[in-house]
Design a protein that fits this description.
By secondary structure, this protein is α+β, with helices and mostly antiparallel strands. The chain has 17 helices and twelve strands. The strands form three sheets. The chain has a five-stranded antiparallel sheet with strand order 2-1-5-4-3.
Amino acid sequence: MRATVAAAWQLPATEQIGADQLSAVIRATPAAVGCGLVNAGIVGLSLWSAIAPAVLVAWLGLTVCVTVGIYLRPSQARTGATSLSRRALRRATLWAAVAASPWAILPALYLAALPHTSELVLITVTAGMAAGGGVLLAPVYPAALAYVATILVPFACKCLLLVGAGYGLLGLLAVSFGAFLCAVIATAARLSVERTQALRALSKSAQALQERDDTITTQNLRFETALNNMSQGLCFFDGDERLIVCNKRYIEMYKLDPDRVRAGTSLKEIVAMRYEVGTGPTISAPEYHAWRNRVADANELSETVYKLQDGRTFAIQYRPMANGAWVATSDDITERQRLTDQLAENHQLLAHMATHDPLTDLPNRVLFRARLDAAVQAARAGNGRVAMVMLDLNKFKDVNDTLGHPAGDSLLKAVAERLTACVRGDDTVARLGGDEFAILVLAAHPVVEARAIAVRVQSALTTQFQIMGHSVCIGTSIGIAVSCDQSPDSDLLIHQADVALYRAKLKGSESYHLFDRGMDETAVRRAS
């Protein structure tokens, strides 16, 4: 019980009084000023005949000056300050005492000297002003206590000092009323502080929420800006294959309708839209979904490149996320792929040029030697035997001298075509230089194959050519060398074919000659 009673008069710490409380008091000041002036008028009318007019007018003037002066005094409250400064608190207390002073003067001077009715009005107004001012100033409780004390202390003292029926009891009643007002002021002060603290906490929470919302908004804006400024198209699907987010580049790359691509749109709908506008892959929709399922089942980072129906080439990078979600980026590599393909073609062309004769497009000496070495290795492994057919064109120099080099080049091209028609698909026809050609044969019976080729070549090349409007007749000399069974050798074959060719030239009359191991090569070289 004692604790409960003590709690009724418990005041908050002055550090808890903030500028918000003072601002609340200041906002209520106009109403208080109006009530004060009305009460002053009522007291003036009631006491006009009981008090000397000069004294009453002076009191009214003091009341008006004090009340209006406090109202017109500039406010120095700083809204939002966490606590009221000691200086501001002292000023507020002082001005509260000044505002209460007119209502303390009349009772102190005229109590017990007035007619009963006038005295009753004075007591009532004094008690009312004390109560009203105390409650009004309660948020700034030092000012409220000063206001109440300024009015009731002189009133109670005057009552207790008067000798007369009921004044002592009135003084005790004033003391009891003052104690009650102090309890009311304490309670109101605590509620005001608690309310202010709650409002401050709520304001801080609201500010924190606003700051968080601003941060999230800023992050979302940055994310959206970054997302929509990517050079790649990005899409993010959940575990049910429904769209979570995609950027503008994705919509532009696949020529989708922005109004139809929204969060929650299924992958099947988007794929169907792509096939409608011609930006689906060149495979069918079921094949595409089957590929998607395989990628999802693998649950690992993957990259793939495919062509679209409109001819563009996209590189797709798929990255699985938690709970079956996944992110995919699409990169338009059409131009890069074109350059890559062109570069590969250029490399292939360069490689072809390095191993082929630029005029006839037959294998040149380098490629012929490589194939000869490979054929010799195959023969050593027991996969057949090697025959080399070497031939020179007869009368080619006459064509060059009489018809010119363009005609000679045309003749060489025609010879290459006829030679190619004379051999099997696995045989190699090469131009070694000038009017010198060679044929490589790998067969189980190379002698038979080489002789048959030689016969066909002689028949083909002795047939008249039509070159640049001229009928041209040439012939050929052919030398044939066949690898031995023991240990075939590329250089030996070339040498033997060359010797056989020389022997064929000596024989003349468009002949061919097969290298004979009993041939006296020394004699042939001496004769040359």
